[in-house]
Amino acid sequence: DAKTTQPNSMESNEEEPVHLPCNHSTISGTDYIHWYRQLPSQGPEYVIHGLTSNVNNRMASLAIAEDRKSSTLILHRATLRDAAVYYCILRESNTGNQFYFGTGTSLTVIP
Amino acid sequence: EAGVAQSPRYKIIEKRQSVAFWCNPISGHATLYWYQQILGQGPKLLIQFQNNGVVDDSQLPKDRFSAERLKGVDSTLKIQPAKLEDSAVYLCASTLVPSIRVTEAFFGQGTRLTVV
User: Fold this and answer.
1) C-alpha angle with apex A58: A84 to A70, nearest 5 degrees?
2) pLDDT, mean of residues B67-71
3) Residues of B with Cβ-Cβ distance to A91 under 8 angstroms
4) What is the per-residue pLDDT across A43-87, written as a single tens digit (0 to 9) for each?
5) CB distance from A53 to chain B under 8 Å?
6) H/E element holding B102?
7) Nearest-CA distance from A16 to chain B in Å?
8) Dihedral (Cα; A6, B85, A46, B10), 10-degree rounding
9) Angstrom distance (rounded) from CA A38 to CA A17
10) What sign has the CA pseudo-torsion B52, B58, B63, B64?
11) CA-nearest residue of chain A to B91?
């Protein structure tokens, strides 16, 4: 079962930062927080993941709350190619490493 | 590096017919997943393999769905007989090793099944 809560949809203007929130209040100490995105007619693709500390990579940043009950995916400058459904996933250490997806957040980027 | 290959890309069948999907994971990836994605929903895990063994098939409708990964490489997912509600995209994914510290799962483009 998916154990994350995300808004159904969000909008952003092109070239502006986007903050995509995720709540995971039942997270356990060893669960990793992963973000994937799915472009239209494509399979999901990895974006970023973290455990406790904030993380940065070439695609995005991940800000994790101190209590780990929520996190935020940050796209620093949204482009039209970032329009996708973004999934926040808990990769649980005690359930065989499955990926359980929720319904995600559909991001619309406005030119 | 070649990605996860799936075939066919599209399939249209009548209800009660049978259908099979094929997946070739990235070379050397031990873990393979099959997902079902109904329009407007997130992917739902159907089955997970570790090499040629099943790790989790708790959400696989075993009365009509079956999957195998005989040599620990390619995998097939079969539906027999198909129902209208099986219309969905079937996604295959693979990871290198079964560790939560592994960064990413790689997904194929999926097979879009339409049951009429």
Assistant:
1) 65
2) 91
3) 100
4) 999 999 998 989 999 999 999 999 999 999 999 999 999 999 999
5) no
6) none
7) 26
8) -140
9) 19
10) negative
11) A43
